[in-house]
Design goal:
With 551 residues, the chain is an alpha/beta fold. It has 23 helices and nine strands. The protein has three domains: 90 residues, no CATH class; 218 residues, 3-Layer(aba) Sandwich (Rossmann fold); 216 residues, no CATH class. Helix content is 56%, strand content 9%. Strands 4-3-5-2-6-1-7-8-9 form a nine-stranded mixed beta sheet, with helices on both faces.
Length: 551
């Protein structure tokens, strides 16, 4: 089960709950089932990876390296007693929760040191309780919450107390020590405290770039002996890493150096744990809770069958199948495959607006242009209202009154020269068509040009590094694909578009789940705008899509 399949399982559980809620409302309208709580559990699903260790161990640097960013503040100065979480967001920002405040305040990441470091916020004078950093990282989008705790053993006693009080909220622990002084007294005390916890423990020895190969062997043997004294023979896996080397490798795109840093192995192992242990346990527990809820719902046989099939499918996913998958295999949809709007529709919207701004004046005050519009029968129904969006009442009266007079003359002729059975066809002939509406003709000209430019750019630019296909609505996707005269770029465009649709569907399902779980505040900007983006993808931009109704 990869992360995409995991989310599909959650969405299927939500679908079962929706169906059951409808049945219960029909059969027992006065009974309120336990569905709200179950929706909330699904919506709040998160994986708290709590990072602990003595100050100056490089915890923040290691998190930066794992997330391929440099946005978390680092340094040897002890942090204040502030819990800092790192989660997914559509854009980079930080949200500050103050002691005694119910609302959070937003700051830029550049301001973060003023709130969470001892230098910027000595003694936590700002009374910051938590700081949540949001980053557009695909790894975070799939459920990871990195929790950076204040360093243990600093001169600020509150730091150690804050860290130890947060440990019960962890799904897993990553204790970071280093080669210069491995496993301090405070770190050993934390190990003893979390040894009985059901959460998985990862032991990380950082800064191996500062030690020789012989020194590494000696330090790792020492850490292994200390861990055995705490855990017995079931000692946690020990990772030797260099956050500094990993960050340099990320900047240079050096995969070999990244592998040598040990950080990629740690990241892959954390992801495997998320998939094979934590998520499996969560889904199994949710299936049991939903099964209990269904017992109170009459005639829920179909929903029970769906739940049984889902539970069976979850059980058939074996952890062994995940051992050889890379993190790219696990996270599923491409992080850049985000549909915002249709590129061709954007060209049409801008081009038509520019044309209308000039056209609305010309048909009012240029006799030749006005006469031509009248001869063509005016504008189609859709473009009448587009024209009205830019024209003034005066301009409309001046421009369209001759048209109404011409229509009155034609109706008079129909009334006097045609039979009643011919009225319908005669009146239909009064309606303008895409061939006679001036704006329709401009629309088609702009659209043909934009489609041709898009097809040409896809064929010529697809070999460029970091090139990304643009988003297209379904109508313009078909037109662009037909205009591409090579198989491979057309195929790649369809694959990229499929990834966009898949990701958009996930955003919509997440929003629905958080809405039904009364957790809308957890929705990202992408999830909040998913309904509008889906309508644009299916129907095109509303300012330009009405022409299709004329055909």
């Amino acid at each position: 089960m990869d992360l995409t399949e995991y989310e599909r399982a959650k969405f299927e559980l939500a679908g079962i709950l929706r169906s059951a809620a409808v049945l219960l409302q029909e059969e027992k309208p006065d009974v309120h089932g336990p569905f709200a709580d179950l929706f909330a559990r699904l919506a709040e699903d998160r994986f708290n990876l709590v990072v602990v260790g003595r100050f100056s161990r490089g915890k923040s640097s290691l998190m930066n390296a794992m997330l391929e960013t440099e946005r978390l503040p680092t340094g040897i100065v002890p942090l204040t007693s502030v819990i800092t979480t790192v989660s997914y967001g559509s854009r980079e920002r930080a949200m500050i929760q103050h002691e005694g405040w119910s609302l959070r305040s937003e700051i830029s990441l550049d301001q973060l040191p003023d709130y969470v470091t001892q230098q910027g916020n000595p003694g936590n004078q700002r009374r910051v309780r938590t700081a949540n950093i949001e980053l557009p990282s695909e790894l975070l989008r799939r459920g990871f919450y990195f929790v950076d705790t204040p360093g243990l053993g600093s001169s600020i006693l509150a730091n150690t107390r804050t860290t130890e009080s947060f440990l019960p909220q962890a799904d897993a622990f990553m204790l970071v020590t280093s080669y210069d002084s491995p496993l301090s007294e405070e770190e050993l005390r934390v190990l003893h405290g979390i040894a009985a916890s059901p959460g998985r423990i990862f032991l990380v020895v950082n800064k191996h770039d500062t030690a020789s190969l012989e020194e590494r062997h000696q330090v790792l043997a020492h850490v292994r002996d200390q861990a055995r004294a705490v855990f017995g023979d079931q000692i946690p896996t020990i990772f030797s890493v260099s956050a500094r080397e990993a960050m340099d490798a990320n900047k240079q795109g050096d995969k070999a150096r990244l592998a040598a840093s040990g950080v990629s192995d740690l990241r892959d192992e954390l992801t495997r744990f998320l998939l094979t242990e934590k998520q499996g346990a969560f889904l199994a527990g949710m299936c049991e809770r939903v099964a209990d809820a269904l017992r109170s719902v009459p005639n829920a046989r179909s929903e029970a069958a769906r739940l049984t099939a889902l539970h069976r499918a979850i059980g058939e996913n074996r952890p062994e199948a995940m051992r050889h998958l890379s993190i790219a295999d696990m996270v599923g949809t491409d992080a850049d495959a985000v549909f915002e709007s249709c590129w061709v529709c954007e060209q049409l919207d801008r081009g038509l607006y520019d044309f209308l701004c000039k056209y609305q004046w010309k048909i009012a005050f240029d006799p030749t242009i006005q006469a031509n519009m009248v001869d063509h029968g005016g504008l189609c129904a859709f473009h009448c209202w587009q024209y009205a969006s830019v024209a003034s009442p005066l301009g409309t009266c001046v421009a369209l009154s001759p048209l109404l007079e011409r229509l009155a003359e034609r109706l008079q002729r129909v009334a006097t020269s045609a039979s009643r059975h011919e009225y319908g066809s005669e009146l239909h002939g009064l309606r303008p068509t895409p061939d006679t509406c001036d704006i329709c003709r401009v629309h088609l000209d702009i659209e043909r040009g934009a489609v041709t430019r898009m097809a040409t750019s896809i064929v010529s630019a697809r070999t460029r590094q970091n090139f990304r296909f643009p988003g297209l609505c379904l109508t313009h996707l078909g037109l662009v694909v037909q205009s591409i005269d090579a198989d491979e770029p057309a195929r790649e465009l369809l694959v990229e578009q499929a990834a966009m649709l898949k990701r958009l569907s996930e955003d919509m399902r997440r929003y629905a789940l958080k809405h039904e779980g009364v957790r809308r505040y957890l929705a990202s900007d992408e999830e909040t705008s998913a309904d509008h983006r889906a309508l644009m993808l299916l129907g095109g931009h509303r300012n330009v899509s009405g022409l299709r109704r004329m055909g």
